[in-house]
Amino acid sequence: MRGLISSSSKSKSSKSLLSYSIAIQFPPLHSPSDSSQSSVKNLYSSSCFRNSTSTEPLSRNRNGFFSSGYSRNPAKIADFGGNGCGFWRAQGLVAGARSFSGEPVSRESLNYDVVIVGAGPAGLSAAIRLKQLCREKDVDLSVCVVEKGAEVGAHILSGNVFEPRALNELLPNWKQEEAPIHVPVSSDKFWLLSKTRAFPCPSPFNNRGNYVISLSQLVRWLGLKAEELGVEIYPGFAASEILYDTTDKVIGIATNDMGVAKDGSKKDNFQPGVELKGRVTLFAEGCRGSLSEEVIRKFNLREQGQGQHQTYALGIKEVWEVSADKHQAGSVLHTLGWPLDSRTYGGSFLYHMKDRQVAVGFVVALNYHNPFLNPYEEFQRFKHHPAISPLLEGGTVLEYGARTLNEGGYQSIPYPVFPGGAIIGCSAGFLNVPKIKGSHTAMKSGMLAAESVFRTLHEGSPLEAFWDSLKSSWIWKELHSARNYRPAFEYGFFPGLALSALEHYILKGRSPWTLKHGRPDHEATAEAQLFRPIDYPKPDGVISFDVPTSLYRFSLSFRSNTNHDHDQPAHLRLRDPKIPELVNVPVYAGPESRYCPARVYEYVADESGHLKLQINAQNCLHCKACDIKDPKQNIKWTVPEGGGGPAYTIM
After folding, report:
1. Nearest to 257 by CA among 272, 269, 267, 242
2. ETF-QO/FixX C-terminal domain: which residues (predicted)?
3. Whose CA is closest to 5, among 284, 251, 243, 254?
4. Nearest to 568 by CA among 326, 300, 257
5. Residue of 237, 263, 150 whose CA lies nearest to 569
6. Contact at 8 Å (CB) between 320 and 395?
7. What is the pLDDT of residues 321-357, one digit of tens each?
8. CA dihedral over 218, 159, 319, 310, signed as positive or negative
9. What is the CA angle 257-262-267, rounded to 5?
C-alpha cells in the first residue's frame, strides 16, 4: 500500500509556503548605544542580499546553509528570489502602508502524509528514518519539516559533547559522508570550585568515544541528508497553531501570518499563514515548545506518562577563539560549585572545539529560590575564576546564546502519543542530566517515532506502539538508571553530591527508589524580603560583558545574530498586564529583569516614578526562560514571525 499523498500529488494551489516575499529588516537591539550601531548593522544586513530578481534556482546559500523556503521542488519557488541569508526579500520595499480588515483571511492548504514541526536533531532524524523506510519498502510517503529559524540550525544551541550512538544507527557511514564531527574527546576533567581554587574530582561522565562538536552545524548536515532522501524542508516559517478536526484529532499545523504590524494592521507585504495538513503530525520543537506544551495540556499527556512536572535549567553559552598555545582540541572540563550558592544547582562546561574555538557555558537550574539571582551575571562572574580566566585572556568571543533545557528526566516523560501524532525529542524531554546530553536520545526518539508512524500509515497499526517501543529502547534504560541524580540536589548541594556518588559508583542506577522533584520552577522563587540584593561586579569588557555587548558587538558580526522585525505583534504576552506592578515588583523585586539573558524585560519609571514593565521583544533569544520561571506564570511565549530570533552558526 502506497501513501495516499505523494510528493508529486500534493496541493495544486498556485501558491505555497515559498510564495512569501518578506522585506528583511534589522531593528535596533534595545541598547543605550543603538544610534551609533545602526550604520554598522545596515552595512551588515545589506552585505548578504543577492539580486532579488535572480533566476538562479534556490538552494543552500554560500555557507552551505539552508535558506528560507529551500525545497526539493524548485517549481514552487521559481517566481521568487532569495537573499541568500535565509530570508525572502520583497520585490519592492514600500514603507508604512497599513490596512485593517475585520474579514477572516482564507489560508491555503498543503497536504502531506507526515508533518514535522522543528528541524532539530529529533525532527530531522524522524524525517530521515521515514524516508529510509520508504526506500526499503518501496512506499511513497510525503514528509514535510517546518522550522521557525531562518535557516536549519539557526536556533540550535547545545554544549555539545556528542555521543554518536543514535547517529551510528541512523547513518552508519557518517564519517565517510563528511559529517561535521571531527574532534574526539581527548581529556575529561571535573572540578569542584571554591571562590579561589579548583579541586580536581573523579570525572563521572565517561566521554570516551564521544566528540566535541557544534550541534547547529551537525543539524545543517542532517538537513542535507534529509533533503537528499526527498524530505521537504521549510525554514523561516513558524508553526503557530495546531489544527484539529471535529473530533479533536490533530490534523496538522498552521504558520502564522506574515506582514502584520504591531498595531494589528496588515502591512503591504502581508501574507496569510499556510495550513500544513498531515495524516500524522510530529512535534519536535525542542525544550518547552509552545505547540508541544499545548498538546501535553490538552490531552493530559504528563499524567498519562510518568506523572511528574518537568523541571528546567537555563544554559548560557559563548564560543571563544583562544590563542593556539592554550587550545587543546578535544579537552573537556565540567565544574560544580562557585559562584552558585549551596542551594542552587548548576555548573559550567568548557569544550575545546576545532580551529582554536572553545565553548564556554554555564547552566543554572531554574528552581533557584533567590529572586535576585541573575544567571547571566553568574556566568560573567564565573569566567573570572583564577582557574578559568587564563584560558580566555587574549581571546575573542565569536558567538553568544542561551537556551533552556529539560532536567526532569525519567520522572517527567509524558505519554508521547495523542490523536493524530506524537511529541519527540526535547519537546518530550529525554535529556540525560548526569551525562549532560540529550541529542542522542532526541535523535533515537525521532527514529522510533518514525518507525511507528511508518507502520501506522503503511500497515494500519496503532501509533500508540511508539510508547511501547520507547519503553523497550536504550533511551528508557539510560534515563531510568539516571533518574535520581537531579532530584538528589533538592536536599542541597553536598547531600546531592553524596547521593549522586552513591547512585553512580555503588548502586549504578539500580537503586530500589525513585526520588521526586520538588516544586515546579516558578513556585520555587521565594519572596525578595528573604534575601539581600546581589552586588555583581561590573564587566571588564575583556572577559566579562554586559548584555547588549553579548547580543551585539561593535564590528561587522553579531554575537547572537538575533533579529526580529520590531513592527510586529509582540510574541511575548502578559496574561494579566497588572501582575508585574502588583505582584512581581513588590513581592519578587521584578525577577524577569534578571532571569532573562537578553534584557528583554526591563522596569522603567514613568513620569510619576512608578515602575512599568517594558518588553524589548526584539532582543529575544527564544530561550523560553520567561515562560518557565515567571512566578505567576503570567508570561506566555509564542512564536514571532518566521525567520526571527537568533541565527547561530557554530553553537
Report:
1. 272
2. 541-649
3. 251
4. 257
5. 263
6. yes
7. 999 999 999 999 999 999 999 999 999 999 999 999 9
8. positive
9. 55
